[in-house]
Write a structure and sequence with these properties.
Chain B: It is a multi-pass membrane protein. The complex is a heterodimer of chains A (333) and B (1129). Chain A has 333 residues and is of the alpha+beta class. Helices cover 30% and strands 16% of the residues of chain A. In chain A, helix 2 runs antiparallel to helix 9. The longest helix of chain A is centred in the N-terminal third of the chain and has 28 residues. Helix content of chain B is 45%, strand content 14%. In chain B, helix 7 packs parallel to helix 24 and helix 29 packs parallel to helix 33. Classes of the chains: A alpha+beta (333), B alpha+beta (1129).
Chain lengths: 333, 1129
């Protein structure tokens, strides 16, 4: 009986409990070191080159128009220009196509120094309200664009929606207008789920404060793609947002006339506005950095590999050489 | 069965000085005392009086628990929040409920609740174990008088002050008792105070003469008395009180007090009355609260926390200043964010906004000081402790006890120990003496070798093989002599029929053969001294018909067993006086002999001129025995004339009954008078049996560079013997005894230190001295209650489990069954745990810096508004699921080298005490790596996803896309990093690293599939937006490689050009060089010992050096003995 009790305390043997599980114990031999650096180098440089060449095929036209679209008379005080509803805001820009642009060509507006990622701004929305017609009173986070003066909930509420970008672009080339397709610029998940097809704007932009674009109250939110794109807040204060798509090719050296309705006030906060036309490739828009970064890292790895080869050649250490053990290196007292 | 003897032996005729009863008339006046400190009144046999005030004293129920059911919650919570880190987390959690928090409250509160809950559960479990332990004691049974002379058994907890209890042989006293009477007519009893002071010898207690008649149950029917005495106090050796009985008052002193937790020995039963019960008892008053210990790494981690906290405050300040500026100067222009009524974003009061933002920032960057670090460390340590508990190599078959990590806080401290302070009895030795050798009339007897000789011989045999190559020529002709001593007497063969306490083997003396020896008469005298000169009580075992002996000390037992084996059975004590070290007997011829046994130095001083014929030979033998680690005593005798004896005896009798302090002096003087002109007979050598494997273990520990101190209550000679036995001392070492000043300065430079005659308190003080004086990590190991102080004081306390008393184990941090397991505990588990925890903490800081700083950089781009680029759930899961498991597996399973190699290369242990893996260089290196990684992750991602489309469909990246991509890069980078950090991959590591990355995708997909109510911006992000975008995958590859490149280059370089020991050994193993080149492997193993001066290897080395010296001198004659016992070099 006692013997049994004694045995019960004996730890049972298992390779796990005795920490003797079979293990892979790799060590960084010179071979491994050189091989891994070479492999990374050999892999990264081609990737970098491919990415760079892909980026190179992208044609991009960027036109900053916020300054030029203010009449000279107002250049000292652009705010009074932009805030005056009576002045005509149309402004014509001509864009030169540097290389042939193959459809689809994407039209973007770019805002700079606009803190769409500011915490106060980001929080100022009601997802529930956008999704669900029953939840129109859910305006908790939307202050001060939550309710109208007579306490009716604003749909869509919050600062993001309220500050919707309202410049418009009309493009034409050789006198023929180019259709900008505004459908399908938003993510499917937004149009299908996040923005309700039975939620309609209500009391929007009717308060005392003047914000950005107005919305057609007859169109459900799920079809207000400009709003949907705008509501996906950008990560940085400089950002591009999709405006539309062009389905025709633009030939090289062609001039595109852009009629800009310059409504959006970037003058107050010193922001910039740009109109961007760009093609894409598999890495997206023009992005030389990715390729350069790959080539740099790959190059560094090759450099490192060469260095290690040299080091191993000139100062070799036989692996497992016991003379490197500390007790063999220290002078014995 | 023992009753029979007891009946015959009513009077305990053994007196040592301590128990000589002064004659009746010498009774002192009762103690005069009043006032504070002496207020206790005990009404004997009337416990009813003590149930109500004013004489209500605490019950005998003891509780050492920290909490009870009601106090648990508040007290445990309070304990938890005394940790600054927890308080910080609580504050953060509280603030997360306010609108300033950048996170949702649940993501802050849930982990805190988890951590606190876990710690409290651990606390509760420990408390429960304590409670069970207490109850085991409380439920012990004792016989209590319930009135009318009836005694019944009751649990200890029901015993009350005033109760008369009857304690039987080999039982513990349930409380502090006043000793009334015993089974001996003269009111003597023997107690063992092992649990109080660690001493194994028996102490004699005597009752008052007046209570002697109370010697059976019925006598207590009408027993009434009152005790007035001191209040409860922790002093074990004093007691002052008065006993009022029959209208007379008698003074009480400590010899009438039987202390709780001491044990009744050699006495059938005693009666006593309870004076101090429960927590009032002296032993409970002595109990000290076990201090909470923290490991060096943990303390250093605190400093890192301070560094990080400074960093946290710094970046929070930058953040809030930035925020204040942005809010004050730019926000008025941001028309899309109209003025806020809530104060947080108030451009008119930027300073206030900045202050509020500071709190937001502190919470946001809280990832630099992750709560999960504490959870993970706690978890890892518990798992490490589990491995320690389950290590089959630390399981003791004999006692059936596995090793036990009683606290998991100190695992890594085991790898950093510098000095070991060890108790002797019960720890190094078994407290069992074996009669091994003797020298009679200058002739040595006894063929067996002591354990240390055997261990040294086998080591030497091994070494000589290795040394052959160096001395092929010179050693060859003398090989035979070396052989002579390296082949030990086979001891295993006959061990099973060996008698306990008797390992003597020499046919010349056994089986009556001694009669044929030349000095048979002297041998006879020797045996007589062996059999008679002691104070033991024989006890007839009626079943076997043989005697067993109840001796005060185990050496005496060994002598008696030896005498019996030689044919001199000691059966009955007749009238004799034992004083100091002699006994006077009359032999059958009427010759009066004084037989004397004592330390050699004392005996040699008292030899007569013609008694020195064997002196030279005996001294030589004594030296040999001493060096072999044996306890020696010299035997001498003297023939007394009848007249001389009777004259002396009269004086002695007078002196015995005299009163006062003079008595001792007189007796001392009288002993001196008679113990002179002795004739030397011989000497004995008793082996204080070492625990199994102790010399080998000490050798290994010494090779691992550990200093070993032995603290013992024994006298100096014994301590030195055991020093030799454990190879802590060897010939040629200088022994320095008397040093009061600069003790420490001297001692820390010594290879080994033995402190003798130290009290339990001094043990603790010495430990503190070493700990504070050197600032290095100390480990104390002991088995008894007397070691508790030392165990609690040291950085690590190790208790020897499997012995009777549990006090040492209860106070310890680790419990092992045998001293020899200490080697594995330190060299294997300590080494591993140290490296694991060190690497784990470094990595943890790395990963949280790498992650936390990306939040800060992003801040700068959001106008310092406190917006996080990551979803709340990413952040929550980062430390809980996505990066925690690999680091936990690092902390639990990492092995730089296998356990065999740890043991073969004890020098590897030094990586811990030198703290090579947790120095500031390394810590800052890792932090720098984290900083680098954060920069790479953030800026590469930001630039890649900057403004242009990231997909062929023309969409640009929004915050959720950038955040998710960045987070994926962090996950990859830190998980690749840990793969580079590890050197030991079992399927568990492979699985967990893979799992962490896989879990991220699984989470992302599942989370994205939830309705947007829950997933918000992350809805469908992976499936819809990221996975089809090649740039997402390319950025992961780029970032993960770029993050780990410098580290890879660094470790490659370090390994190639500054390899550490474990690197080289890993390589040797990797290329199986140890198999191909066995000679090299063996050579390195032997070199891997630290330059050590102690341990038997060092002793063997010293011997070999000596041997070489002799060989080189080409001395023509080389006696084997000269080889074995070299003169001091």
């Amino acid at each position: 009986m006692e013997q049994k009790n004694k045995n019960s305390k004996k730890p049972s043997y298992s390779r796990f409990s005795q920490q003797e599980l079979p293990a892979w114990k790799p060590i960084l031999t010179p071979g491994w070191v050189i091989a891994s650096f070479l492999t990374i180098g050999a892999l990264f440089i081609p990737i970098g080159l491919v990415a760079l060449s892909a980026s190179d095929t992208v044609v991009e036209i960027i036109d900053r128009y916020d300054e030029d679209c203010v009449p000279d008379a107002y250049s000292k005080n652009p705010e009074s220009f932009i805030q005056d509803p009576d002045i005509k805001k149309t402004c014509v820009r001509s864009l030169r196509v540097p290389k042939k642009m193959v459809a689809p060509i994407f039209v973007y507006y770019q805002l700079e120094n606009f803190y769409q990622n500011h915490r106060r701004f980001v929080k100022s929305r009601s997802d529930k309200q956008l999704r669900d017609p029953e939840a129109k009173n859910d305006t908790y986070n939307c202050f001060p664009e939550a309710r109208t003066a007579d306490n009716k909930p604003i749909v869509p509420c919050g600062l993001i929606a309220w500050s919707l970008f309202n410049d418009t672009y009309k493009l034409s080339t050789r006198g023929k207008p180019i259709t900008i397709d505004k459908k399908g610029i938003a993510w499917k998940s937004d149009t299908k789920v996040k923005f309700g097809s039975n939620v309609y704007p209500k009391d929007f932009q009717k308060g005392g404060l003047i914000g950005g674009a107005k919305l057609d109250e007859k169109v459900p939110l799920s079809e207000q793609e400009d709003l949907i794109v705008w509501m996906r807040t950008a990560a940085l204060p400089n950002f591009r947002k999709l405006y539309g798509k062009i389905d025709i090719d633009l030939e090289a050296h062609e001039t595109v006339k852009a009629e800009v309705e310059n409504n959006y006030n970037t003058y107050k906060f010193g922001g910039r506005k740009k109109l961007v036309l760009s093609t894409t490739t598999w890495i997206g828009g023009k992005n030389d950095f990715l390729g350069v970064a790959y080539i740099t890292v790959g190059g560094l790895c090759l450099f490192m590999a060469i260095n290690f080869i040299l080091l191993y050649v000139f100062r070799p250490r036989r692996l497992g050489d016991p003379s490197y053990l500390s007790w063999n290196r220290l002078p014995i007292a | 069965m023992a009753r029979g003897i007891r009946a015959r032996l009513k009077r305990s005729s053994l007196y040592t000085f301590g128990c000589l009863r002064p004659p009746r008339e010498s009774i002192d006046e009762p103690h005069q005392f009043q006032g504070p400190g002496f207020s206790r009144n005990v009404c004997c046999n009337q416990p009813g009086f003590h149930q109500k005030k004013p004489l209500k004293y605490c019950s005998n129920y003891i509780s050492t628990t920290k909490y009870n059911v009601i106090t648990f919650l508040p007290k445990a919570l309070f304990e938890q929040f005394r940790r600054v880190a927890n308080l910080y987390f609580l504050l953060a959690a509280a603030l997360s409920l306010t609108p300033v928090s950048p996170f949702s409250p649940v993501s802050m509160i849930a982990p805190l609740v988890f951590v606190i809950g876990l710690s409290m559960a651990k606390e509760a479990l420990e408390n429960w174990h304590r409670f069970m332990q207490d109850m085991k004691v409380n439920m012990r049974k004792v016989i209590v008088h319930i009135g009318d002379g009836v005694f019944v058994r009751r649990p200890w907890m029901k015993v009350q002050v005033g109760d008369v209890v009857k304690v039987e042989k080999d039982h513990f006293f349930p409380a502090d008792l006043l000793f009334l009477s015993s089974s001996y007519e003269d009111g003597i009893c023997y107690v063992e105070t092992m649990n109080l002071d660690g001493e194994t010898n028996l102490k004699v207690k005597r009752s008052l003469e007046v209570t002697l008649p109370l010697d059976d149950d019925a006598a207590f029917k009408d027993f009434r008395a009152t005790i007035t005495c001191e209040d409860p106090n922790p002093n074990l050796y004093t007691f002052v009180g008065n006993f009022e009985y029959d209208r007379q008052t008698y003074p009480l002193d400590p010899s009438q007090i039987l202390l709780r937790d001491s044990k009744l020995r050699n006495t059938a039963h005693v009666y006593g009355v309870v004076i101090f019960s429960g927590h009032d008892s002296k032993v409970m008053q002595n109990a000290t609260k076990s201090p909470s210990k923290r490991s060096t790494i943990e303390k250093q981690m605190d400093k890192i926390i301070y560094v990080l906290f400074t960093l946290l405050v710094l970046i929070s300040l930058i953040s809030s200043i930035g925020f204040a500026i942005k809010t004050g100067y730019q926000m008025p222009n941001w028309w899309y964010m109209p003025q806020d009524a809530k104060k947080i974003y108030n451009p008119t009061r930027p300073f206030l906004s900045g202050c509020i933002h500071l709190i937001t920032a502190l919470i946001l960057y809280g990832y630099l000081i992750p709560i999960s670090l504490y959870v993970s460390i706690e978890l890892v340590k518990v798992l490490q402790a589990l491995f320690i508990n389950r290590d089959i190599h630390m399981y003791d078959e004999e006692t059936g006890t596995p090793a036990q990590a009683r606290t998991s806080n100190l695992n890594e401290e085991l790898g950093m120990v510098d000095t070991i302070l060890s108790d002797k009895t019960g720890t190094l030795t078994c407290n069992q003496m074996d009669f091994l050798k003797c020298s009679i009339a200058g002739v040595p007897y006894g063929m067996r070798s002591s354990e240390v000789e055997l261990a040294a011989a086998s080591q030497m045999a091994m070494d000589l093989v290795g040394h052959d190559h160096n001395f092929p020529r010179t050693s060859a002709p003398h090989g035979s002599e070396i052989e002579l001593e390296v082949v030990p007497t086979p001891r295993t063969g006959s061990s099973h029929n060996r008698m306990k306490g008797f390992s003597f083997e020499d046919s010349r003396l056994m089986n009556g053969n001694w009669l044929r020896e030349p000095n048979a008469d002297i041998i006879l005298l020797f045996f007589r001294i062996l059999a008679l000169c002691h104070t033991a009580v024989p006890e007839l075992n009626e079943e076997t018909g043989s005697f067993t002996y109840e001796a005060e000390s185990p050496d005496e037992g060994a002598f008696l067993v030896a005498a019996r084996e030689f044919g001199f059975e000691y059966c009955k004590r007749t009238q004799s006086s034992i004083f100091r070290m002699s006994v006077i007997v009359k032999d059958e011829t009427g010759q009066i002999l004084l037989l004397c046994k004592g330390a050699d130095s004392i005996i040699f001083d008292r030899l007569s001129k013609n008694g020195r014929s064997f002196e030279e030979a005996t001294i030589k033998h004594l030296n040999e025995y001493g060096e072999a680690g044996l306890r020696t005593l010299a035997f001498a005798y003297r023939e007394l004339e009848v007249s001389e004896y009777s004259a002396w005896n009269d004086e002695f009798a007078k002196a015995k009954t005299s009163i006062g302090g003079n008595r001792d002096l007189m007796l001392e003087r009288l002993s001196d008078v008679i113990e002179r002109d002795l004739i030397l007979v011989g000497a004995t050598a008793v082996e204080d049996k070492l625990q199994q494997g102790v010399p080998q273990c000490i050798d290994k520990l010494a090779q691992a560079g550990l200093k070993i101190w032995v603290l013992t209550g024994d006298k100096m000679e014994t301590a030195i013997n055991i020093g030799f036995a454990c190879s802590l001392l060897r010939q040629g070492m200088k022994q320095i005894y008397d040093l009061k000043h600069q003790f420490l300065n001297l001692a820390v430079d010594c290879a080994s230190v033995i402190c003798c005659r130290v009290s339990p308190k001094q043990k603790a003080l010495v430990t503190r001295l070493v700990k504070e004086g050197t600032g290095k990590t100390t480990l104390a190991i002991g088995d008894g209650a007397n070691d508790v102080g030392m165990i609690q004081e040291a950085d690590i306390g190790v208790g020897i489990s499997g012995v009777e008393g549990m006090q040492a184990v209860m106070a310890s941090d680790f419990a092992i069954a045998q001293f020899r397991f200490l080697e594995r505990l330190l060299v294997v588990h300590g080494h591993w745990c140290y490296k694991r925890i060190a690497q784990m903490i470094c990595y943890f800081f790395y990963k949280n810096i790498a992650f936390g700083l990306t939040l800060f950089y992003f801040e700068a781009f959001t106008g310092f508004s406190g917006q996080s680029v990551y979803d709340d759930w990413y952040m929550l899961l980062f430390n809980v699921v996505l990066t925690s498991l690999p680091v936990i597996s690092l902390g639990v399973f990492e092995q730089d080298v296998s356990s065999e190699i740890c043991l073969q290369f004890p020098a590897l242990y030094q990586q811990g005490p030198r703290n090579l893996f947790f120095d500031w260089y390394r810590i800052f290196g890792w932090m720098g790596n984290g900083l680098y990684c954060s920069l790479i992750v953030f800026f590469l991602n930001i630039i890649i996803f900057y403004d242009q489309a990231f997909r062929v469909d023309g969409q640009t990246a929004d915050m959720a896309v950038v955040g998710t991509a960045m987070f994926t890069c962090v996950i990859y980078s830190v998980n690749c990093q840990i793969a580079l950090t590890m050197s030991h991959f079992t399927w568990i590591q492979h699985f967990l690293i893979g799992f962490s990355i896989g879990a991220w995708y699984v989470f992302l997909i599942l989370y994205g599939m939830f309705s947007p109510k829950i997933s918000k911006n992350v809805y469908q992000i992976f499936i819809e937006a990221l996975s089809p975008a090649p740039i997402y995958w390319l950025s992961i590859l780029l970032v993960a490689v770029a993050c780990n490149l410098p580290y890879l280059a660094h470790i490659s370089f370090q390994r190639s050009f500054n390899p550490m020991d474990h690197h080289v050994i890993q390589e040797i193993k990797y290329y199986k060089k140890d198999v191909k080149d066995r000679h090299m492997w063996r050579r390195e193993k032997s070199k891997a010992r630290q330059e050590t001066k102690i341990g038997f290897s060092a002793r063997v080395d010293a011997k070999i050096r000596h041997l070489k010296l002799k060989l080189q001198r080409k001395s023509s004659v080389l006696s084997p003995r000269a080889v074995l016992y070299p003169t001091p070099t």
